[in-house]
Structure formats: structure tokens, C-alpha cells
Amino acid sequence: MRRRIYADSLRTVARYRLRTGLMMLGVLVGIAALTSILTLAEGTEAKVMAEIEKMFTANNVIIRAGGAEIAAHRPTGGPVTTLLPEDLEAIADEIDAVDRWDALQMIPSEQVTYRGTTESVRIFGHTPQAEQLSGRSVAAGRYFGPAEMDGAARVALIGQTASRRLFGDEDPLGQRIRIGGAPFEIVGILEARGTDLHGLNRDDEIYVPLSTLMRRMLNVQHVLFGRMHVADPDRLADAAERMAEILRRRHDIGPDEADDFAIITPTQVRRMVAKSNRVFNVLLPLVAGFVVLVGVVVVTNLTLVSISRRRAEIGLRRAVGARTGDILAQVLVETLWVTVAGGALGVALGLWAAGLLAGHLEVSASVSWRTMAIGLAASVAAGVASALLPARRAASIDPVDALR
Question: Could you give the CA distance from residue 277 to residue 281 in angstroms, rounded to a whole number?
């Protein structure tokens, strides 16, 4: 009996091709949206965590100039100038757990010229310790050293995108460029980093010694960020508390006054990212689920129309002995044939679309069995939900009325 129901259902699906195609399309779109969203969400989460690992290793603490309140309410009069390299040196001297530190100052956009070609490039000032602390070294050439840092030397490391824009296919090593009108020698080509979480191309930038940027280019005493390396990760929380105490003391901050700095630990960042990911992983599937729900409504209505047009057929089957359960099963199986087929096509389409979008978003889009299982399970659920009302209506048809 079951084989007959399966065979009859399959023949019915094949007979009404237009209806079957429309029903399948309704499910296909929703499942494709769900699959692509889940795939991109997994890839985006992986990229975010990878970027955080690059910036925040288990041993790094970030110190940012400007506390939370200052960052939120500071007037547009200029940057916070309270964080000094001397503060970071004092932290390294007083806390034996801190064995290295780096600082950052920057110019968001500066004119860089090479033989008549001028481009706007971001300029970052770092210490030589940045090579180890940031996990970004050079792909060719060398990093600037302590002597060049002490002497505020005019040497530079160039990102690969900036190199192509200025030099084309020419090797930039040893060449001289002008940054803001001042001559610099390219001594290294930075390793490729790609696009960061803010959408900035990290390969379209130039590094110079921090002292050079501060003294020769900006004429400032302050830095924007400090990166403190704690040798023992187990001592990181205590070290962060000590850093805050030292900075409050050096900046003469009273007991009731807000900090003019912010200390960011890897644990804080991971908590923040996990919270954001929870929202991200709930809201987006809900949106896709709404699309699937629309597909369910479409399939339900088309099935109801089909039932009304097949009243005589269903009434005849009831008259020759088909039970209520047989009618319910046939309608359910017919709907499942369509929704599962549409779901399988939707999963394939969603993975393909996710692959295309991942290339533009620079995230990974690997095939996940979990995502495929969710897509197929959603198509089965959509089929069952779509068949409930039409199956009950078909089973309630009176054979006498249907055959009149």
C-alpha cells in the first residue's frame, strides 16, 4: 500500500508540472536564502575570530587613548593627547610580566609620490617591536630596527597594494618615495593582510618608525594606542589592573574622575564578539526563516487549489475504498516530493550563491554538513507544514458530493 501511495504521488507530481514547478520555486528560494546566510555567517565568524587573533593574541593588552565617556562625548576639537610613549615605558618598567610593548600613531591619508605618480595612502608609525607583537612581518626586505627608531630615520615598509599603485611591477625595495613631501627609502614590503573588520585594505598602507612619524611628520608627543605583551597569559588580568593603576597615577586622575584611557584584554574582546555573533546567528536565520514561511504559504495555497480541482478524483478513490489515512498520506507525500526536491536544489543554489558572495566579502564559504542538514530539514518541515491543511481538507471530502 505504501509503495502504491509513493508511486501515485510521484505520478501526480509529474502530471501537474506547472503547479509542481511553482511549489518547488517557493521552497527553493527560501532554502537557498537560508543556506547562503548560514554559510556566510560561518565564514564571517571565522574571519572575525581570525582577525581578532591577529590583533589580540592571548598575551596582548591594548591601551587606547580616551576612555569610554571621552570617546562618546568628546567634542570634535581633536584627538585625545594624554597617552604618551613614556606611559608605556613606565608600565613595562613597573610590571615585570610585561616584556615588550609597541605604540601606534597614524596619518589617515597622506600624499605619497614616486616619479610623478601620487597616491593617497594611510601612514602608520610603529616601533620595531610591532613585527613580533602584531604578527606581521615583511615578505621581502627587512623591518626597521632600534637604531632607526632612535634616530627617527626616514625609512618605510610598504604594503603590497600601495606598492602596486605606486610602482606597478617594479621592485620597490631600495627606491625613494616622498611622503608628504619628505623623502623616504623603502626597506621592506609588508606581508599581505587583506581587508580588516572595518573594511579597510590593510595592504594599502605604509609603516614608518614611530619616532619619525611623531617628530618629523606630525610634531606630536602622544600616541593613539599601545600594545603591551604579557609574557605569562595567566598573569594578564592582574597586569591589566596594574596598568590602569599606573596610568591613573601618571595622569593625575582623581578617585571620582573617569579614566582618559581604555584597557582592552583578549577576554573582553572575545566576549563582545561572542555576544555579537549570537545576535548575528539568530537574526539572520530568522529573516531567512521568514522567506521559508512565505514559501510554505505559497505551497499551501497551490496545494489547496489542486485539491479543489481534484475533488472528483479524490471522491472516486474514497468511493472505491480509500481510507482517510490513505488520502492524508498521499497529499503529504506529494507535497514532500516537491518540497524536498526544491530544498535540495535550494541548498545547492544557496551554496553556489554563498561562494560568489564570499569572494566579494573576502570570507570563506566552505561546504558544511550542518548547513546542508539544516536546509534539508527545513524543506521537510516546510513540506509537512504545507500539507497539513490541504491533506485534512482532502480527507474530509464526501465522496457522494464529490461525484455528483
Answer: 6
Taking only the tens place, the pLDDT of each residue in 293-317 is: 888 888 888 878 777 776 676 666 6
| Grid cell digits, residue 100 | 615588550
- DSSP-derived secondary structure for 32-68: HHHHHHHHHHHHHHHHHHHHHHHH--TTEEEEEES-H
Q: Report how far apart, in Å, the C-alpha atoms of 236 and of each of 101, 128, 263 are.
A: 14, 23, 12
Which neighbouring-strand residues pair with 8?
none
DSSP string, 314-327: HHHHHHTT--HHHH
Q: For residues 157 and 322, what is the distance between their CA atoms, to the nearest angstrom?
A: 81
Asked if residue 30 lies in contact with residue 351, where contact means CB atoms within 8 angstroms, the answer is: no
SS3 222: coil
Cα–Cα distance, 44 to 369 (Å, whole number): 17
pTM score, whole prediction: 0.67
Specify the long-range contacts of residues 364-368, CB closer than 8 Å, at least 24 apart. 364/43, 364/46, 364/47, 365/39, 365/40, 365/43, 366/39, 366/42, 366/43, 367/39, 368/38, 368/39, 368/42
| 387 — pLDDT class (breaks 50, 70, 90) | confident
| Rounded CA Rg of the chain | 32
C-alpha–C-alpha distance, residues 267 and 155, integer Å:
36
- Residue 110 bridge partners (DSSP): 121
CB 166 within 8 A of CB 112: yes
